Each structure stands twice: as C-alpha cells, then as structure tokens.
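Chapter review: from sequence to fold.
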Amino acid sequence: MFESVPTNEVLNTGLKFYSTCKAIQEGFCRCYCKKSGDIYHDTLSGTNQVVAHLEEKGIRDRIFKCDILLDSIWETINVGHWKDVDIFWRQLYRSVCFIKSVNLAHCGKYSDAILSCDMGLIMGAPLGDELFVQELADILCQLVNNDLQEIEMKNDLVKKTEVPLPHLPSLVNVSSVDAPTLEKFLDLLKSGTPFIMKNVINHWPAMKKWSPLYLIRYFGERTIPIEIGSSYTSDVWSQKLLKLKDFISSHILSQADEVAYLAQYELFNHITKLKDDIIPLDYLAISDNEIVTNCWFGPAGTVSPLHHDHYENLFCQVYGYKRFIMFSRHDNMHPHQHHLLENTSQMDIESPDVSDKFPDYKDKTAWVADLGPGDVLYVPLHWWHHVRSLSVSFSVSMWWKN
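The token string follows.
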C-alpha cells in the first residue's frame, strides 16, 4: 500500500506532470492516435485516484491497459531505423512505464515496478529534465528485501592479473603526475599525449563504497543492458538485459562460459543514486560543453578493441585494474570501412601475427598505462586505445570537447 511507500511527492508530482504535459498532448494529435490517447488518459486518471486514496479498484485493469499501450508503442519504435522514430513514442513509452510502476507498487509488487521503471529508462526518452522515473526506481529499490546471504568475496577478486604485454614494436610507459593544479593540467594538455594523474579522486565516496557486494545489496534489483561476447567486433556479440545482482552473481563472483560487460553506459542517468558517489573534476571546467559520463563494469579479461573516440577523455579507475595500450591519432591503424566501425581498427594488437597482416605496425609507437584504483588517465582526442581488464573492474570515463 502507498501508506508504506515514502513516494508521495514523487508520485503526485510525476503524475501531475504527465497529466498536463503539452508534448504528450501534441504528440497524440501529431501522430493521429486518438484511441491510444484515450486509453492513456483513462489509465492516468485512474492512477491519480489511487494515489489520492479516492479509488482502490481497477489496478489490474490499468496494468493491463498499460501493457496494451507499451506493446503498441514497442511495435512503432521498432519499425524502421531507431533514429527516424518520432521522439514522442519513446517519451510516451517512458511515461506509461511510470504509470505502470505506480500501480504495481500499490500492489506491493516492488520488483516488477522497478523493472517497469528500468524499461522506461532503457527504451524510453525523457521529457525535458524530468527525473520522475529514476526517483521512483531509487525509492522502490530501498523497499525490496534483498535478503542476501553474506557473499564470500574471494581474495583474488581485485588482485591484478599479471598479463604479459603483447608484442609491441616500440613502447613508451605513460608518465604520472601527482594531483596537478589546473594550471599544471592545462600545461600537460599542450603536449597532446596521455598522462596519468594520481590522488585526484581519492576523496570520492565511490572509492570506499563501490564493490560487487555493495552494488548487489543496494542496487541489485535494477535491470541494465549487458554486452555479451569477447568484443563488439565479434560475430557472436550481442546484448541482453540483466538484473544487476544476476550479472554480478553469474559473471563477477563466478566464472561464466561467456564474457559479459557493462560497457560505455550512462549508468548515472539510470541509477542516479550512484552519481552521488562521484564528484565532478575541477579540470573539466575548461569545457563549455556538456560532460558525457560513461561507466564500465565487468570481470577480468574484458577487452575493448583498438578504437578512438570523438572526445577528450579523463578515464577514472575506481575499482580494480586496467591496461591501456594507445597509439597516436596520426598513426594509420587501418580502421574498418563500414561506417558503424569506422572508429575501430582492423588490427588485433594481441594477435601474434598482427605484423604479418599489417607490415606498417612495426613502425608504430605504443603508449602503455597500467591503471589501479584512484588513477585518472588522460586519453587525447582521437588517440587509438585498446583496453583490457586485469581484474574485476569499475571505471568511469568523462568525455568532453575542448
């Protein structure tokens, strides 16, 4: 019952927002979907009655109507190219997921309600800066009784694996600097080469809190997109949605047959409570553009193949160990010709025959950085980098344009 759920402010404000949202009203008119609009408003009205304690009946019917709407929207979203779909449909999908979650929570089905929120966050789109779905999910997650037996953490879970370097034609070890001032940081940027900063994120709460056990205990019910396969260039690469606790139990705390990785995902827009555990770096004040923050979480042995990004990058290693092997942006690393992989090299630099396939590889210089907890690596714009996890690892990358 809602009396036991401290969500009244989120529920009332969220439902009021969706009830009066002009973008949704205009979307129904623009897309000529009056029938769907009638179902939506009827379901929204009934949910408002429940929250106001004026009506207790019809919850199952409203959940059923939400599912009808979600199925219809899903079909529309998945026709043609994703980028060509009217943003209204994804915004509507997210708002219906919120309404469904409210009704599920009222029945005490908190896990199902959280899943509905997560589907709205993964597949839907926000209406402006609203965070109602995230806020509801965060609150409901606290109500789920993750009656977990104490998990025995293996001592070698965060031990750095000694993986030999692949054959590299020429090698430079990336230099480190201790907590540079902003002036010193700007001076280092002028070199246009990578460097490691020490003692600049040690004050983050994440440095003490984040661990597989912590994530299971407080966010285990959250559903996230996981990459399956050794690399996104693999023929058998795929994605699936998993609860965080299932991902950690199956792929972090135990050995699985398949490699799984939470890779390049804006997790803080999904689980907003985690964002409280990091503190924006003062160095990023040099950018007038929005900072793009991605998270990377997975077991030892995960690999990001040689590629480059269209951003400057401060890569923050919070938990565990990673190895970067980098090459200058001016090096021809033989990118794939297909537009979807044009920022990814055809070279497998861990393959012993890479020099046979690409004779000019012997002329390159590799920059190597082994990162541990608390290290921050600067990866310059368009620098090629290959990344391997040397243990269970949680990292945060902060992209910006200078």
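Two observations follow directly from the output. Residues 152-156 have pLDDT under 50 and may be disordered. The longest strand covers residues 312-319.
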